[in-house]
Amino acid sequence: MSWLVTGGAGYIGAHVVRAFEAQGIGAVVLDDLSSGKTDFVPKATPFVHGSILDGAAIERAIEEHGVTGVVHLAGFKYAGVSVERPLHTYRQNVTGTTTLLAAMESKGVDRIVFSSSAAVYGTPDVDLVTEATPKRPESPYGESKLIGEWLLADQAKASSLRHTSLRYFNVVGSGTPEVYDVSPHNLFPLVFDALLAGRTPRINGGDYPTPDGTCVRDYIHVADLAEAHVVAARRLDAGDGLEPVYNLGSGDGVSVGEIMRAVADVTGIEFAPEVGPRRGGDPARIVASGELAARDLDWRMRHTLTEMVESAWRARRAASAS
Which fold has domain 172-217+250-321? Predict the structure, then answer.
């Protein structure tokens, strides 16, 4: 028995692979390396250099490695860029998911954990997002993730597919120094890169109606996220009933200002971030409840903000030194 992890050479995917293997569950990585790194894949883990747009490659991977389930993380993940590249986003995220499901059906693989996104909610008008909060995505990326959830639900009605989707906001930290966030758009890499280059980090907006004037968001540790994927897979393997979607939320959130203070404390680099204008469409607060996931997936925030920053900074410095 093994699970195929699409996008398993990426920041999140590589942590999911390690979480599977720590539980004694075999993992196989499928990644086209458009944003992943082969160095992130454990040396003993089977690696297939291929795209989720290539159904034949997926079928070969399933056959050759005895795949019984899939964790689907591969896709184009940049919400802002997706507005400029909608066709590319839909091809990767919608056509790719369709191709993957077709290959799974062809080879009799009947369980999947889908890495969705809280981008499906857009700008909610509630303080605490639940799975029932209306879905109003505001980018092709968010729309493509919602369509991915629909595809799984419709395929399940027409076949024996068992599935669940995990929605989450901002993923940070590192569970191992060998794997770090390489995104050119995420907050932690942008802040660390600025500090390492001797520049002052910049944040967007300091006049929001929040306690310190900066946006409040869910920030979850990547190792906690990876563990939730493993629990979901194990429950699907056991034939347990799961909800179609779960929010992996903190329930309270932290502000960008709090993160900046934690970064200064952890790095020992004193700075006051430059405050630029607000970005269009950025709500003051988006925080999700994780109650359903806590009930069914043993979801909880196992790391403090300081631990998130410490682990991310350790991995980033290790990468700079290598």
Answer: UDP-galactose 4-epimerase; domain 1 (3.90.25)
SS3 (DSSP) at 243: coil
pTM equals 0.95
Give the tokens for residue 4. 């195929």
End-to-end CA distance of the chain: 35
Q: One of 141, 168, 180, 246 is an active-site residue; which one?
A: 141
* CA-wise closest residue to 104 among 66, 62, 144, 72: 62
Q: With beta carbons less than 8 A apart as the criterion, state whether 248 and 166 touch.
A: yes
The 10 Å CB-count burial string (b at 16+, else e) for 305-315 is beebbbbbbbb
Q: Is 141 a catalytic residue?
A: yes
Q: Report in angstroms the alpha-carbon separations of 187 from 83, 118, 171, 183, 264.
A: 19, 17, 10, 9, 14
Superfamily of domain 2-171+218-247: NAD(P)-binding Rossmann-like Domain (3.40.50.720)
Cβ(284)–Cβ(255) under 8 Å?
no
Backbone angles phi, psi at 288, to 5 degrees: -110, 150
Average pLDDT, rounded, for the chain: 95
Task: Using the CB atoms, write b or e for 81-116: b if 16+ within 10 Å.
Answer: bbeeeeeebbebbbebbbbbbebbeebebbbbbbbb
Total length of the chain? 322
In 3D, which of 18, 118, 313, 307 has the Cα closest to residue 126? 118
**pLDDT single digits (tens) 186-216:** 999 999 999 999 999 999 999 999 999 999 9
**Domain limits of the chain?**
2-171+218-247, 172-217+250-321
pLDDT band at 283; cut points 50, 70, 90? confident
